[in-house]
Amino acid sequence: MTDFFVLPGTRVPLEGSDMPSYRPGDDGQIGLGSSPGGDGSVVQVVDAEWGRRAAVARGLAGELAAVADSLSQVNSGNHYGAVPEGQTMFDGVGAFIGLLNYNIRRHVSLLNDVAAQCVAANAELHSADSQGGEGLLQA
Prior knowledge:
Number of domains: 2
Low-confidence stretches: 1-6, 19-35
Helix content: 55-70%
Oligomer: single chain
Largest sheet: 2 strands, antiparallel
Shape: rod-shaped
Mean pLDDT: 76
């Protein structure tokens, strides 16, 4: 089943979907993701939402990058002593910090990819909207 996300947490099923459309309740309120007629036929693309999602992903990537930079300063010298146990502890903590730093930087890269995908999705949806609207304007 394919759904278009209208607002975070809401879906409008496509026609022919096995999921029923969202309908207004008995109180006459229109649920999120519903068209005024309640038939689930309205799909709305909100440019600001895609921009916000991209900005959040970029912001989090920047914060994680700062954490990774700070983390590289931890365990800069052997403070555990020149005994074998101290060296073993220093090596173990260094390996752990290195692995943690690697994983944080990997997530920074993934978040930057998410931001780029949000921008691309917005452009693709905007283009599809424009192309779909051209036929309406010519009619």
